């Protein structure tokens, strides 16, 4: 029987453990914090739980435009509807613990041994877990990553924070300064603004989320400004210091911004130090990420890696797939190498932004030839009924064959709507096939089939 030891219990680790156990391997999972790892306990699950609360609050604030008024009338501002932050955070942490327990029970039910300890490689086939030494035929490293710390802006957990500190706050921040306007910064900035905090978003680039679809980022920034957020573009933070009752953020150009709290969202660093990786022959890149191929192999024989510690694409879904692929390959099963072009991703802002496949940037750069159509959400009947005015559906296809290459959805529940486009990309469907698929009327998903119909008309004016 093949012995597999997995270091790390996040999505890359526990999904690998489930597959390995189902294929008959003897599996041990070594996890220091608990089943689900940081993804479930401190990062993805808690943040999306809190964001769900903020979306409910924003819906309450938007309700008067649909003729629904709550106590106090229709003219109340964002801060008027009370948010019980201790209760919000209690629910966030309890839900995270419950999800961790569910994962632990599921993994244990498959016969996986779980060791609560820090694991490290002694050599490519030997793992040290606490006071135990375990010999393995295959080792999978799935240790995740940690929030990056900027010199001069070291978190104290009280006023200067990473997102892992947020759920211990007793009160809603009066004025939250979010440093970093990537995906994480955009998510938390929008959530806390909807919950009632004054928010300043400090972005070092010309626009928010510079690595995402430009049209989508433009829509979100307009929504944020309309809701009263202060978005500071081309503003790089040089330092963050505590004051008597808050923080002051000094920018590289000498300007300052003052608030009650500062949230650092400036990227992630891999949890790869002190694991004995390089001594075991595992190659790391200059940033400390484990280098892997498309079937999750490292440079050390018998050692695989999955998830954020590889830096391939920091998504839970990608980590899980990397873990599964590692097991399938190690155990000699049929396996398809990781295809990043088919990965769907979502930014859990309000509205959400979801994308899959090729990007507008690749098309504009001439890397890929594609026809493009973009439909504003405001023309969709269901969107009008629900008062959704911001967003769009964008679809890309090959000019001659009509094969769907990708798309972008900016809408409420875009994370659900993108599945239709994702299936089309994965299965190489054409816009004709997508257009001939029935969509419910009225529905937001109807705009996806409508976009496909626009693309299947060769004489139509197809524009952006």
From TrEMBL:
It is an enzyme of class 1 (oxidoreductase). Its cofactor is FAD. Gene3D superfamilies: 3.30.390.30, FAD/NAD(P)-binding domain. Keywords: FAD, Flavoprotein, Oxidoreductase. It comes from the Bacteria. PANTHER family: MERCURIC REDUCTASE, NAD(P)H DEHYDROGENASE (QUINONE). Pfam families: Pyr_redox_2, Pyr_redox_dim. Its EC number is 1.8.1.4. Residues 3-323 form the FAD/NAD(P)-binding domain. It comes from Nonomuraea africana. Residues 343-452 form the Pyridine nucleotide-disulphide oxidoreductase dimerisation domain. Belongs to the class-I pyridine nucleotide-disulfide oxidoreductase family. GO terms for molecular function: dihydrolipoyl dehydrogenase (NADH) activity. This is Dihydrolipoamide dehydrogenase.
